[in-house]
Amino acid sequence: LLRKSIHMPFIFQKNWSATRARSSTLSVDLISVFALIFLWGALCLPLLGSIKEFQWEEGRDFFEAQSVLQSGHFFSYTVQGERSIDHPPFFIWVVVGFAKILGGLSEITLRLPAALSVLATGLFIYFHLRHRLSFESAFFAAGCFITFPCVIVFSSVGEMATLMSLVMLLLVISWCRIYESQHIRIKDVTLFTSLLMIGNLTYWPTF
Q1: What is the pLDDT of residues 174-202, one digit of tens each?
Q2: Closest Cα to residue 117, out of 46, 186, 175, 165?
Q3: Where are the alpha helices (DSSP H) in the chain?
């Protein structure tokens, strides 16, 4: 009994140290996430409605999403009466989903999926790298992606390449999980296969 009482303080001290370390890690993660969201919000959100005219392929995306909303056919949509057969549908489906949530098609519903894809990609970069590198390195990599000028422009004009970048990153992370695991798990293979299919539906020339 005396021996147990002697070891009890050391056990409590060890548990307290582990709890404090987890709390410190969580605090750093929260600060990093809020900082990345602040960067994204300051750089990307003001541009969503600042450009009133459709840019690049936004006009085509608008007519295709409008066709899906009017006809209800998610695999067959038209652009000014002509059937569109060379445009991957997944980005259009996302735009249609945002249009239903926000109450209609506009430049905001066309550009918001791209902007959110940039934010999600930055956050996934951070959480994927922080287990392999330092917090500073992970935050630097994610911050560089979010603040890269080309990425900011793409997020402000509804470019589907932003969504494709997110899918590609998730494919890489999923492949790393399969490669690093000692046993191949069905759920990891299913996730990788599903992401590969989404990638084909998002930007099929890449595949």
Answers
A1: 888 888 777 778 887 888 888 888 777 77
A2: 165
A3: 2-43, 45-48, 58-71, 90-102, 107-129, 135-147, 149-156, 161-180, 186-202
Q: Which candidate, 162, 78, 150, 81, places its Cα nearest to that of 117?
A: 162
Q: Are 114 and 98 contacting, i.e. CB atoms less than 8 angstroms apart?
A: no
Q: Span 48-64, mean pLDDT? A: 68
User: Please, which residues have CB within 8 angstroms of residue 84's CB and are 6 or more apart in sequence?
Assistant: 60, 64, 77, 78
What span, in angstroms and rounded, lies between the C-alpha atoms of 27 and 149?
A: 29
If you write DSSP's letter for every residue of 143-174 in order, what string do you get? HHHHH-HHHHHHHHTT-THHHHHHHHHHHHHH
Predicted TM-score (pTM) of this structure = 0.76
Query: Hunting for tokens 């956050």 — which residue is that?
Result: 123
Of residues 157 and 56, more confidently modeled: 157
Contact 74, 89 (CB under 8 A): yes
Residue written as token pair 């900082």: 35
Q: What six digits make up the tokens of 23?
A: 């709390």
| pLDDT tens, position by position, 105-117 | 777 888 888 888 8
pLDDT tens-digit readout, 10-43: 444 445 444 544 556 667 788 888 999 998 888 8
Rg (CA), the chain: 22
* Residues β-bridged to residue 119: none
Q: How far is it, in rounded angstroms, from Cα 6 to Cα 194?
A: 55
